[in-house]
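writing this on my phone so excuse typos. first protein, seq and then structure
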Amino acid sequence: MKTQNPIHKKKLKAAYKTIFEAKFINEILVVSEYTQLKKGELLIDIGDEMTHIPLLLSGVVKIIRKEKKKELSLYYLKKGDTCAISFANCINNKKSIFKGVVEEDVEIFLLPVNKIDEWLIKYDSWRYYIIDSYHFRLLEMVGSIDNLAFLKMKDRVLNYLIGKLHTTNLTSVDVTHQEIANDLNTSRVVVTRLLKELEQEGEILMKRHKIEVLEK
């Protein structure tokens, strides 16, 4: 049995009280592990054994697919989210095929995989939460595929910036041109050129390591 700090308990209830019933939250507190990760650290890496499911209390995690030394950003996890793909890998005893990188310092509860099946039967709220998570992540990945297939790179860059703003709830994006290039699987030179075009068109305002998306 794990003993949780009262502050951690308060944070878990604040983040998930509208999603899970009180009884389930108390059970999570008994069997889960609380941890913190700093920006740039890995929540999970490709090839890792899946032993826990993350529940985010705060911060942002970027989920990345990597193939032949190239990376593609798929979606972001934030407060109230879990990684549905991690759930699938845990159930099937598969290793991770994605990487989760901390974008903003996070607080997480790690739920043991050996409780997942039991909770699916025991708690309707957990079952609905997992189904909703799958649905939402599927829509996000379809959106990523649509961006790749149908949008010009300039539109992809603008959508990327708008998406990061929605994820962080900030007024500007703290990101370098190289980071954008890495996430969109293109070159820094291309990103720099397109950002200048977007600024000239009045879509964005560039500052040092920060980019503001302008309202129209």
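second protein below, same order as before
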Amino acid sequence: MQLLVFLLVYPVLWCISILPFRLLYFVSDCIYVLVYHIIGYRKKVVRQNLALALPHLSDKERLVIEKKSYHHLVDGFLEMIKTMTISDKEINKRFKFTNMELYHEYEAKGKSIAIFCAHYSSYEWLLIMNKHIKFKGFGIYKTIRNKYFDKLVRDIRGKFDATLIDTKETTKVMIDNHKKGVLGVYGFAADQSPKASKAFHWTKFMGIEVPVHTGAEMLAKRMDMNVLFVKGEKLGRGMYQATFVPMVDNPKEVPNYELTDMFFKMVEQQILEKPEYYLWTHKRWKHAKDS
């Protein structure tokens, strides 16, 4: 059954991937109408999240952000599909790093690097940084149940020379690399919500106390990695840029959970600047103490 579903869907994905961007965004506008106005995909979750995170805004202002966020969501999904056939020249024109030289300075320090980022802007295309670095790049992700789609995602992201690690294998792979002296850069999208019962730490995120993942911080400490935050920005439709922001060089010297708190404050600032580019469809405040 998994293969049948894949064989039915893959031709559609491939046809979408070869569309020129102007036509791709026309398709995106059509899908937006379906997803937002007809299906109403996770609309209740998005509205609850926006009300919790942005209580200072009026209902009308949040509605504008809501609609823009769905446009961005659909654009991002189609842009990920477009990655199947996009050329290096095209994607490098559409996604730029403002200070790659800073990253290279950190490579020169001779320690592995942890990259902290949020589900904001174009976090999928962030993987193109692997085309500009010397270290081996690793992306942490959750394996897709359908093994054929999982392979497709691996192939798409592997196009940028990224090696994907399942969340359950992250610690083992990092320890093995550390023992072998393999210098790597590891990408952590660490703003997701863990199970409250398994959380080691709670912090304020958009003014609400929630349980947060601390695995990225703990691994950075254990492996003594330099830590950078990546601030993503959307400049226009299909046009993005990212800026590296130093967090800490010696994570072992930082009190436990301070690095995680710092990360969420940086994500919060990013959201407040342009909230429509955050991924609001996930229940990030479902365990909120203030709810």
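The chain has a mean pLDDT of 95. thats all i got for now
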